[in-house]
Structure formats: C-alpha cells, structure tokens
Amino acid sequence: MSHAKAVAIIDYGSGNLRSAEKAVERCISDQGLDLSVTVTSCPDVVSKADHIILPGVGAFADCMGGLSALDGMVDCLEQVVLKEGRPFLGICVGMQLLAHEGLEHGTCAGLGWIEGQVGPLVIPEGQNLKVPHMGWNQIEIAPSHKSHPVLAGIEDGDHVYFVHGYQFRPHDPNHIMMTTEYGNPIAAMIGRDNIVGTQFHPEKSQRVGLRLIGNFLGWRP
C-alpha cells in the first residue's frame, strides 16, 4: 500500500478506547514502529488503515447495534478485512461480534465472519465460580496455533485478564487458538486467516497483552 501505515481503533460507543489506544501507542514506541494510531468512527479512515482493532465492552446486541449504526462501517470492514485481507483484532465483545449470532438478551445476528455462537458461561454444578468471570487466568495455546506470528513469545501458563459473562463457541474447533479453564475450557482467543480475536483484554494484560498487541502490529498475513 502506498499510504502511511496506520492502525484504526473503531469507536462505536462500546469500547475501552483510551486504554486500547495507550497500549497500541506503547507498543509502537517500544518497537520503534513507523505507525500512527487513530480512534475513529469514520469508515473512510478505516478504509485507509493497515491494521484494524475492534474493542468492545457491554452486551452483544448493544455493541452490534452501535457498530451497525455507523453509516457504512460494516460494509467498509467487510471490504478491507474479508476481501482485502488486512489484519484485524477483535477484543472481548469485539471478538464475540465475529460470531454469526449472540444469545445475550435474545438472539442477535453478529458479523458472521467466524461461524459460531456466543452464549452464557456455563459453570458445572458444585464449582464455586462467579459469573461474570473477572480476573487473571492462565492460557493454553492450541497445538496447531503455537507457531502463529501473533502468539510469538507467548507461552502456555501465561496469565491474561478477563471480564466476561458470555463465551464464543466456534463451530470449527480449529478456529480456537487459545483456551482458558473456568469450570470448562473457554475459547480465550479465536482466529482464521487475517482475523484474530481475544476474549481477554490484552490492553489490561501487562507483559503478555503488550506482546500480543506488538505482534499483531507487525503481522502481515
């Protein structure tokens, strides 16, 4: 691409935007990357970005509604991510929106980029685990994804920070890049092709989260 390299963080009224922006800025600075970062609700800005980040906090339907309300944004994302193959990172509900449907407060269609369903966390009887799941948990990388460029330097047993009451259940288990244990194995990270998404918050996960964001910024799928 001929334009200056840029990272777009999408503002659709449902993200922890400042902490995500600060984490990206820190990775750019630490790695000496020639990148700019913009928080934007404008499809024209997103259409020129090399890397796209979709954060998300709140209920699935509210987030999908907020994204859909940005005139032209979903069409823009489908063009640059699905057709042009630019690297995409979804965070928390931003990752869940990749599913074809969410079951929070009724059924709501998602983006449908990775077939699957987002439903409530199910805790086995007798396990004293609270929902929502909040706090630090260990991760386990799926064997088929251990060499993924976005996971370079990240290992089984590393801790990351979660805040969620719903989980993504992909139809194809090969789309699960990483799991965490919370009563049952939960998809902590999913992905395919040029698309990755984390259930945890990398911007709040200190060393491991910054490593993942830094890897994402250098990823050229």
What this model shows, in words?
This protein has 221 residues and is of the alpha/beta class. It is built from six helices and 14 strands. The protein has helices at residues 17-31, 43-47, 60-68, 73-83, 93-96, 206-217; strands spanning 6-10, 36-40, 51-54, 88-91, 101-102, 108-109, 116-120, 133-138, 140-141, 159-164, 166-170, 176-182, 184-192, 195-198. The protein has an eight-stranded mixed sheet with strand order 2-1-3-4-14-13-12-9. A four-stranded mixed sheet has the order 6-5-7-11, covered by helices on one side. α1 packs across α6 (206-217).
Write the layout of secondary structure elements.
Blueprint lengths: L5 E5 L6 H15 L4 E5 L2 H5 L3 E4 L5 H9 L4 H11 L4 E4 L1 H4 L4 E2 L5 E2 L6 E5 L12 E6 L1 E2 L17 E6 L1 E5 L5 E7 L1 E9 L2 E4 L7 H12 L4
Parallel strand pairs: 1-2, 1-3, 3-4, 4-14, 5-7
Antiparallel strand pairs: 5-6, 7-11, 8-10, 9-12, 12-13, 13-14
Helix pairs in contact: 1-6
Describe the structure concisely for a colleague:
The protein is of the alpha/beta class. The protein has one domain (6-217): Class I glutamine amidotransferase (GATase) domain (Rossmann fold), CATH 3.40.50.880.
List keywords for this structure.
single chain, 221 residues, alpha/beta, Rossmann fold, 8-stranded mixed beta sheet, 4-stranded mixed beta sheet, 6 helices, 14 strands, globular
